[in-house]
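Hello,

Our lab assistant flagged a job as stuck in the queue for most of the afternoon. It eventually completed. Since we weren't sure the result was trustworthy after the delay, we are filing this so someone can double-check. Below is the sequence as submitted and the structure that was eventually returned. Let us know if re-running is recommended.
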Amino acid sequence: MNNISMTLNADELILSALKEDISSEDVSTNAVMPDFRLGEVELLCKEDGVIAGLSVFQRVFELLDEKTEVTFFVKDGDTVAKGQKLGLVRGDIRVLLSGERTALNFLQRMSGIATYTRSIAVLFEGSKTKLLDTRKTTPNMRIFEKYAVKVGGGYNHRYNLSDGVLLKDNHIGAAGSVAKAVAMAKAYAPFVRKIEIEVENLEMFKEALEAGADIIMLDNMSVEDMREAVRLAAGRAEIECSGNVTRENVERLIDIGVDYISSGALTHSAPILDLSLKNLHTI
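-- returned structure --
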């Protein structure tokens, strides 16, 4: 995450998280450390995984005190191991104590998503299929969670509702039919936008194909029907499949020939990566 995107998009969200944790003062820290004292604390890894979100972790402390110095021994995307020292944070001990939980919350969450994504993405090596995330993200955490998916080797689907046309079952219901929904989207959306539509069976798939959808999402269809959909498409539309895709069941989908497999589990079901700040001491 570069400095421009951090300043424009992330700072406000990080500050909101800090304000959630410090509504007036950090009573515990102020009790034991009433005045400035320079200190240092170690960032330690407590289990194997993939690290993601180091710049966000650092930014938490910088927003509390721009003089805080953070040194990392790894970079986003690196595989890390239990017991490994990942970095050092040096600065006002009051800042180190007050920012600890928020900084770790971001880093643990993002690293957990990167770790889970990597465990699935490696299964796609050598295939044409791309692993995508979804909008099933934690409110106000989307920018961080989608970034973590990319670090883990996945790809981002649309960022939000303004980012692309995806007609789902209720959109089809509102329009009246698959063909009508596609036609209305083509008439409304700018010509540079692709039209994607979700279908639940081969009959709906054929209707979407004939209507000229650019991307057709196969939702919770059988492997056999998905194979048939790929055959019928014959390159006329890109094919995405979705529906409760997890690390445990994704392998059955890899060789069916779809262009994309989307998984909400990448962001809504990934466990955190256990990390900690330890060995705080004065300098």
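-- support follow-up --
The delay was a queue issue, not a problem with the job. The result is valid. The longest strand covers residues 38-45. The mean pLDDT is 96.
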